[in-house]
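User: What would this chain look like folded?
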Amino acid sequence: MIIPVFNEASVVAGVVEEVLQTFPHVVCVDDGSSDHSVPEILKTDAHLVRHPVNLGQGAALQTGLAYALRRPGAQFFVTFDSDGQHRVEDARAMLDVARDGDADVVLGSRFLDHARDVPALKRLVLRTVMAFSVAGRRLKLTDAHNGLRVFTRAPAQDLRITMNGMAHASEIVAYLARRRWKVVEVPVSIRYTDYSRAKGQSLLNGVNILFDLSMRQRGA
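Assistant: Here's the prediction, encoded as structure tokens.
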């Protein structure tokens, strides 16, 4: 499991310890945190990789995937947020889908069964980004910006995340739309705590994602 971390000292150890009860192989990528995230991670049995400066979640995920791909025998790669929003049981259910051979990539969706649990502003941001995502519509996705994902080895090896900021999620969807991998969405539930709400994406961030993508497409 790959967990990108940036300034999550108050929660990251608890998240990692919970994950380790089900997933024994965890790598945390500290993305230049300025708080005590690193000492908190070191209290756990997770592997730790560090960026000396903050490069963005996309870069952290790419670093984590590269590290995990070098582990002998690794066949499945789960991405999981460090702020406590994701549930381990959802990750396990998604992994079961991949292990059964029903998908090459499994994406979590908060809009299949749990849309009413999503805060109104968050729902607006995600729906707006989704409306502008040609790749998302091509794949018939309902949630293009969920950080809970499972990759089998072949697409994990092929994936190259180059957008370091939050627009990396749209870049991943665009990559999947260009390939022949079988992509499946699985319903997941997000824990919207006061902490995660305070760190969540604002409407402005959604606009920034769209801007990043439009500039990237112009430069392609």
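The chain has a mean pLDDT of 85. If you want, I can go into more detail on any region.
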